[in-house]
Amino acid sequence: MSSESKSKEPWALFKSLIALALIVLCLWAAQWQYHRGVDRHARNTVIEERIAKAPLALENVDGVVADFEWQSVFTEGTFDVEKQILLRNRYSEGKYGYEVLTLFTSTDNRSFWVDRGWVEAGATATTAPVVTPVPTSQVSITGRLRLDSSLPRGSFFALPGKGEGLVSELNAQSQLNTEKFYIDLLTGSEKALTPEVPAQLPELSDGPHMAYALQWIFFGGLVIYGRILIRRTR
Q1: Which fold does the domain 54-193 belong to in CATH?
Q2: Closest Cα to residue 143, out of 57, 48, 44?
Q3: What is the model's pTM?
């Protein structure tokens, strides 16, 4: 073997190791995208099954609340007009606005937040949006049960403008102990309770994850093909 061939051997080995690392990376990325696609499909299936079920009385929701998320529930109780917050950075048909959440106490003495839908922002940053007032009397409501963890963090401010901040801070300052779920309001016993723009369901599509998984496998194949071409050229 010539000295020139010996000098090229370490460089050829290095290139092979680089190619192997790229192949492993592509296979890892393909597997990651595949599992994301599987998880998203499973989530969509659960949501579709639960929103198709008949409404359930909230007092019959027991055990693990997560097993009932997205299912429609109905209950009776009263809204607390003094405990209302706006969730910022929400959009509807390209318009900036807020999600309105109002505290609700059911007849079985459970307190939780009710998402009363989207409202458009005021004309200026200092102009409060127009929010439909809630009845002060006892009402019945129907909505989708949601986990408290589904609420985005760090985007709250309270009404009226007292500056309480996050929901957890509002609860602490008001000495509240709300449930670990909230409700996306759909309809109510009074017409004013039905949101003009109710809280939206997530997009129930499987997304591009499977296509991305195949794409990463294809990239891994390109690395193998390219390494073979380099060796043949050499």
Answers
A1: OB fold (Dihydrolipoamide Acetyltransferase, E2P) (2.40.50)
A2: 57
A3: 0.72
